[in-house]
Amino acid sequence: MDWIEGLANELELEQLSKHEVDHLLTSSRDVAHRIERKITPLAMYLVGVAVGRRMSDGKTRDEALEDAVHTLLFRLPPPPEDAPAG
């Protein structure tokens, strides 16, 4: 996590909370496994843009992330029935 913290500092952004890290890693995994691995960075970029837009509309970063991740998860196809849980 040191690298991510350093990147946040260099970009002059607030550090990611554990909650944010968990949400983003889980969402990334779900996109990679249910859609296509190479689409994951693009999906996460769109989530980040959506978070920024929602924050500029007055939502907190946590609220904005919850909204964006909820939308992403809603768009995913269901997991395969033979997929391991969690």
Written description of the protein model:
By secondary structure, this protein is mainly α. It has a domain at 23-75. The protein is 67% helix and 0% strand. The chain contains four helices and no strands. It has helices at residues 2-10, 18-34, 40-56, 61-75. α2 (18-34) crosses α3 (40-56) and α2 runs parallel beside α4. The longest helix is centred in the first third of the chain and has 17 residues, at 18-34. The radius of gyration is 14 Å and the shape is globular. The two termini are 21 Å apart. The mean pLDDT is 93.
List the helices and strands and how they pair.
Blueprint: H1 2-10, H2 18-34, H3 40-56, H4 61-75
Helix pairs in contact: 2-3, 2-4, 3-4
Mean pLDDT, to the nearest integer, reads: 93
Number-wise, the strands total: 0
Radius of gyration: 14 Å
Q: What would you call the structural class?
A: mainly alpha
Helix content: 55-70%
Number of helices: 4
Cα separation of the termini: 21 Å
Q: Give me the strand/helix succession.
A: HHHH
Q: Which oligomerization state do the chains in this entry correspond to?
A: single chain
Principal-axis shape equals globular
